[in-house]
């Protein structure tokens, strides 16, 4: 399944594969994505935190003050609007964890390669504190795709979603409004298999709180994520 996903991206043309780290700081995994520090996803039930024997520090510490300002007051382009309106803690941001999604790899890559146009993808392992059953483990592989371009828009994302998932073999595809802290607008991808609807992943346009102040990016960035495990189960379901 992973090889098939990689082949689809490469055949689309212009996409390059990126690699990330299993261990991340909460700053990059959550704060840089404008996920508030009291968000339920940060709790031990969803996240594996790591106790380090020494202070590892934060990679690219120059963005710490920018992320703090965006969380507390919002704002970009000299204007301060929005934000989550709470006291942001650098101590919380310094915590180490096993990455909970591959979107952290996208944010890192955009920070280090901020010039458009850019089309990137990854299919890598992530970790969640889940109850183990026949279709859930504490780890899974996640599909990650993003396009940074002056011409990117919600319409571009809709076309990509329909094309990408049709290449995976799904014929009935529905895009429904959704919510994620780091994208607006956001959509979930729903497919129909044997008359039953199955949610395969999320997508959206990165909010300016994610791309403008911390990354210095002004052009639109569209992104989507999904689990090959869920796609595989949907295709194999009797």
The CATH architecture designation is 2-Layer Sandwich
In which order are the strands of the major sheet placed? Answer: 1-5-6-10-9-8-7
Q: How would you sum up the major sheet?
A: 7 strands, mixed
User: Separation of termini?
Assistant: 18 Å
What is the CATH class? Alpha Beta
Radius of gyration: 18 Å
DSSP, total strands? 10
Quick structural overview:
The chain is an alpha+beta fold and 238 residues long.
Task: Give me some keywords for this one.
8 helices; single chain; 238 residues; seven-stranded mixed sheet; globular; 10 strands; three-stranded antiparallel sheet; alpha+beta; BirA Bifunctional Protein, domain 2
Account of the 3D structure:
There is one protein chain. By secondary structure, the protein is of the alpha+beta class. The chain has a single domain (2-236), classed as Bira Bifunctional Protein, Domain 2 (BirA Bifunctional Protein, domain 2). It is 28% helix and 28% strand. The protein has helices at 2-12, 26-29, 64-73, 90-93, 103-112, 154-167, 208-211, 228-236; strands at 15-17, 23-25, 49-50, 96-98, 118-127, 139-148, 173-180, 183-193, 196-206, 221-226. The strands form two sheets. Strands 1-5-6-10-9-8-7 form a seven-stranded mixed β-sheet, with helices on both faces. Strands 2-4-3 form a three-stranded antiparallel β-sheet. A hairpin with a 2-residue loop joins strand 7 (173-180) and strand 8 (183-193). The longest helix is centred in the last third of the chain and has 14 residues, at 154-167. The radius of gyration is 18 Å and the shape is globular. The two termini are 18 Å apart.
């Amino acid at each position: 399944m992973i090889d098939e996903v990689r082949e689809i991206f490469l055949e689309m043309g212009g996409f390059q594969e990126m690699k990330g780290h299993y261990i991340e700081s909460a700053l990059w995994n959550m704060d840089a994505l404008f996920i508030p520090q009291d968000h339920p996803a940060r709790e031990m039930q969803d996240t594996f935190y790591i106790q380090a024997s020494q202070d590892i520090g934060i990679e690219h510490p120059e963005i710490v003050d920018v992320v703090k300002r965006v969380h507390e007051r919002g704002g970009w382009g000299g204007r301060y609007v929005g934000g989550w309106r709470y006291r942001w803690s650098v101590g919380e941001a310094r915590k180490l964890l096993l990455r909970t999604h591959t979107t952290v790899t996208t944010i890192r890559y955009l920070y280090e390669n901020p010039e458009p146009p850019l089309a990137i993808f990854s299919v890598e392992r992530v970790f969640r504190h889940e109850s183990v059953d026949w279709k859930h483990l504490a780890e899974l592989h996640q599909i990650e795709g993003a396009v940074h371009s002056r011409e990117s828009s919600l319409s571009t994302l809709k076309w990509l979603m329909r094309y990408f998932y049709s290449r995976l073999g799904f014929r009935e595809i529905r895009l429904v409004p959704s919510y994620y802290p780091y994208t607006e607008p956001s959509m979930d991808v729903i497919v129909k298999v044997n008359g039953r609807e199955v949610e395969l992943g999320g997508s959206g346009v990165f909010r300016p709180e994610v791309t403008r102040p911390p990354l210095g990016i002004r052009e639109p960035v569209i992104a989507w994520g999904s689990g090959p495990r869920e796609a595989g189960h949907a295709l194999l379901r009797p």
